[in-house]
Amino acid sequence: MRPRAGETMECIDARKFWENTKDPRKSIPKFPKQLFIEISFLKGLAKSGANNFLAAFQALPRNSRTMYVHSYQSYVWNHMTSKRLEISKKILAGDLVIVEKLAGNSKDEEEEADEDEDSRHVTVKHVTEEDIQQGTYTIFDVVMPLPGHSVQYPTTMRDAFKEFMLKDGIDMDGMVHKIKDFSLEGGYRLMLQKPKNLTWKFHRYDDPTIPLTRTDVMILKGQQLTENPQGKYLALEMSVDLMKGSYATMLFREIFKTSTSTTAQSLRNEEFKAKDSKK
Question: pLDDT at position 107, please?
Fold first, then answer.
């Protein structure tokens, strides 16, 4: 609900109005229609009471509610995975690995798997010193848990998980909740993955607004890219195959040493346009 970078002034002003007044009824007309989730939340507050945030949250569509809960799981996972890799890039005793994949056996389980493709029904084990000595597993077999009431935690990171979540008032050992949307089983994601079929090529160009890769429309129309070997700008095009539910965002961030957020990339486009307009 707070103001955020990259939004229109109409959105920012609406958020500031809510932040300053905390009046849901007066704030609703200020919000543009595209902020429908925020509007639904404010309507819930107006109906249930300005401080009844739980009721307002439950007034949101179910897919929106679960999106926020699953986003928190990913938020914790990202921080804990980064912390684990700071400790060591090698497999450690106490890490978790998958030893068996199981099929879901209830409708609710299937629904949760659909909402987060990485929340799998699996059997995991803690890596032992013997496993490491025998080379049974590698760092690419290690998984990290998405917080939930049915997951195990790596002994190497259990205290870190607990401390991190307690900052948000959440007890990782008490995640069974009477409200179904907040009672998630959890799951596991591979900590690292090896990309396959990685290819790359460079493009030279002058206009920062033209496509640098062929769009679906261009492919259907048989259109080719406009190449300019002497262009003043240099772009790197990369292609890679990843497992379902995996993304190359961090790979690109580390290669280019720049933020991959939409806001940051939009600002870079504006910088290029500003430079061109001065020439």
Answer: 42
